[in-house]
């Protein structure tokens, strides 16, 4: 065999390095099982209890003030961070797609309020509670604005956490291999000892669910409450949800609600599937109220929420999903029974959580 | 590249404006974009244009030692000072670094060492605490690790569109045999340099670098 020229050697070396990287990334993505959630958007009342449950449990340290790993935003709307749906990221085919880094203002700064002045400073009658500075955005700024024109205005709430994707753009982007999927449950974590805060993950995540901590100089995000999951306890956001709309479990658990809603009934869909990351948070799309015509009569020919808008969010599969939901509702209206609707109604809260029904109060605290 | 013998004390030479630096001959290095093909992330490869990488194209290096400590003074032009005020999620600090293979091993400068030939990188960033610099060891692209203790100090000053940063460290650091390069008067060592222009989002492997190893001779 002829000896390689310097140029060929260099080329071969680059190929070797790229292949090594590829196999490292494949290993980091590999998992035996996958936990997932299904959010039924027909039940979300926008109470933000999930948001606060997460905040009080996970993001109270310094540097985390502005972080909201769980959010609920009104759709249509600009969301959080502001206009995240226009910030790129994810994949186009196999190829990673460039994304933007949101600023703190896009997330909404952690506002300080004038509690002292109002409650203890004797000014309770002359001023009111207000945030300092002049904020022009926050994590729930455009609440209940929605879209459409009266009398056909519409909105719904979109709860979001990290999607713990099967093909995470963040994991692919990290030049330090600091991001990995847990082998036992597919939860995506950022190794805080390895992370150097370069924020390529933040750029690459098409859902903009990664935050930068200026105190630790690392990137941080939803950890799917893995210390709870390990003890058989459902995630804080799910367990605290008064609407019983957050299903938790393993995708391969054929008796659990996740498998039924995602794989069997195919009514739970990932958000923006076109971004190519294969999210593991799924949504039951919102069923529209009827439209009203100019005379104020019911117009049943078109849904109030434009199908095009739902397709933008959930892809083409949203149409058959809505058809199934409507057909099952028609069935029960006619006196029939529906396994699908029984699953979605959640008569018993424990049926939300598959194997994760342990009461957190029964778990012994971690020894120091 | 010459590492000139001087007589100043470390505390004195740590100041980039110290008069003693006037007697140390500078060498100007051409700086280049790090090759995109080497970036350890498909995302970085897909989202960057190599022509846009490496804002710093020229670096002035002065190297000196006083028999006990070694000093490097790096200066380069940078219109914007990206320093401790860099506290937004989409902002990055300016920085610079020095790279040397541990044990004098042979490894391509653009690969940040290998499993067999580790490299020692000295890091300074404009948002570090006063006189702080970090000691890191790397065994390949994307593998740099900070050592628990850093024997390095660095001080930077930005003035009229120019950064000047001085690094200093004892020539020999016996407590860090595995994690740091050992230097000695009369010997030579391979050395490379890197600069990050934070204002252009440069961080990690996205930076300008001196492309080839230089032989640094420590004057006897």
Under CATH at level 1, the class of chain B stands as Mainly Beta
Radius of gyration of chain B: 16 Å
What structural category do the secondary elements of chain B indicate?
mainly beta
The number of distinct structural domains of chain B comes to 1
Order of helices and strands of chain A: HEHEEEHHEHEEHEEHHEHEEEEHHH
The separation of the N and C termini of chain B measures: 14 Å
Overall pLDDT metric of chain A: 95
Strand content of chain A: 5-15%
Q: What sequence of helices (H) and strands (E) makes up the elements of chain B?
A: EHEEHEEEEEEEEEEE
The total count of strands of chain B amounts to 14
- Identify low-pLDDT runs of chain B: none
Q: How is the largest sheet of chain A built, in terms of strand order?
A: 10-1-12-11
Summary of the model, kept short:
The complex is a heterodimer of chains A (368) and B (220). With 368 residues, chain A is α+β, with helices and mostly antiparallel strands. Helices cover 28% and strands 15% of the residues of chain A.
Task: Describe the protein's architecture and organization.
- The complex is a heterodimer of chains A (368) and B (220).
- By secondary structure, chain A is α+β, with helices and mostly antiparallel strands.
- Chain A contains twelve helices and 14 strands.
- In chain A, β6 (179-181) and β7 (188-190) form a beta hairpin.
- Chain B has one domain (2-218): Sandwich (Immunoglobulin-like).
- Helices cover 5% and strands 36% of the residues of chain B.
- In chain B, strands 1, 2, 3, 4, 5, 6, 7, 8, 9, 10, 11, 12, 13 and 14 form a 14-stranded mixed sheet that branches.
- The A-B interface holds A 14, 17-18, 21, 25, 95-104, 107, 169, 172-177, 196, 198-200, 202-204, 211-212, 214 and B 37-47, 87-90, 111, 141-144, 201, 203-205.
């Amino acid at each position: 065999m002829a000896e390689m020229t310097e140029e060929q050697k260099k080329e071969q070396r680059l190929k070797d390095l790229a292949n090594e990287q590829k196999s490292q990334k494949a290993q980091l993505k590999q998992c035996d099982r996958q936990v997932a959630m299904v959010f039924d958007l027909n039940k979300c009342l926008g109470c933000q209890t999930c948001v606060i449950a997460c905040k009080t449990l996970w993001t109270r340290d310094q540097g985390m003030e502005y972080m909201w790993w769980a959010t609920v935003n009104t759709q249509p709307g600009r969301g959080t961070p502001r206009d995240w749906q226009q910030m790129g990221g994810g994949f186009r085919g196999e190829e990673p797609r460039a994304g933007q880094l949101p600023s703190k203002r896009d997330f909404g700064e952690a506002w300080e309020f004038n509690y002292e002045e109002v409650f203890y400073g004797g000014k309770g009658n002359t001023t009111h509670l207000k945030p300092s500075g002049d904020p022009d955005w926050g994590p729930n700024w455009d609440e209940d604005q929605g879209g459409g024109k009266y009398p056909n205005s519409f909105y719904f709430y979109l709860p979001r956490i990290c999607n713990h994707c099967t093909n995470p753009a963040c994991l692919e982007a990290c030049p330090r291999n600091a991001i990995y999927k847990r082998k036992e449950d597919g939860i995506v974590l950022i190794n805080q000892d390895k992370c150097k805060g370069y924020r390529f993950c933040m750029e690459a995540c098409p859902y903009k669910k990664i935050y930068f901590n200026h105190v630790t100089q690392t990137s941080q995000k939803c950890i799917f409450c893995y210390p709870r999951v390990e003890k058989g306890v459902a995630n804080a956001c799910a367990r605290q949800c008064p609407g019983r709309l957050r299903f938790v479990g393993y995708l391969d658990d054929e008796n659990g609600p996740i498998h039924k809603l995602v794989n069997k009934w195919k009514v739970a869909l990932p958000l923006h599937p076109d971004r190519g990351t294969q999210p593991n948070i799924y949504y039951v799309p919102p069923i529209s109220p009827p439209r009203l015509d100019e005379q104020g009569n019911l117009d049943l020919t078109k849904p109030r929420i434009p199908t095009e808008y739902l397709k933008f969010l959930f892809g083409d599969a949203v149409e058959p999903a809505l058809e199934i939901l409507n057909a099952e509702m028609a069935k029960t209206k006619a006196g029939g029974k529906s396994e699908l609707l029984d699953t979605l109604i959640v008569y018993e809260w424990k049926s939300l959580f598959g194997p994760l029904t342990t009461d957190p109060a029964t778990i012994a605290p971690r020894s120091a | 590249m010459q590492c000139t013998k001087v007589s100043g004390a470390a505390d004195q030479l740590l100041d980039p404006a110290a008069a003693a630096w006037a007697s140390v001959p500078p060498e100007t290095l051409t700086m280049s974009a790090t090759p995109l093909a080497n970036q350890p992330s498909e995302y970085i490869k897909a989202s960057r244009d190599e022509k846009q990488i490496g804002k710093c194209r020229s670096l002035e290096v002065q190297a000196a030692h006083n028999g006990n400590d070694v000093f490097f003074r790096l200066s380069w032009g940078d219109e914007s000072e990206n320093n401790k005020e860099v506290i937004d999620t989409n902002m990055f600090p300016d920085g610079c670094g020095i790279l040397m293979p541990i044990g004098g091993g042979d490894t391509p400068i653009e690969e940040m060492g290998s499993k067999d030939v580790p490299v020692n990188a000295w890091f300074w960033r404009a948002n570090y605490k006063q006189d702080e610099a970090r000691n890191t060891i790397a065994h390949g692209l994307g593998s740099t690790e900070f050592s628990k203790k850093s024997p390095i100090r660095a001080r930077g000053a930005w003035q009229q569109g120019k950064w000047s940063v001085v690094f200093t460290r004892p020539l020999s650091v016996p407590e860090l045999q595995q994690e740091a390069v050992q230097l000695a008067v009369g010997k030579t060592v391979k050395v490379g340099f890197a600069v990050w222009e934070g204002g252009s989002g440069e961080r990690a492997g996205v930076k300008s670098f001196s492309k080839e190893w230089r032989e640094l001779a420590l004057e006897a």
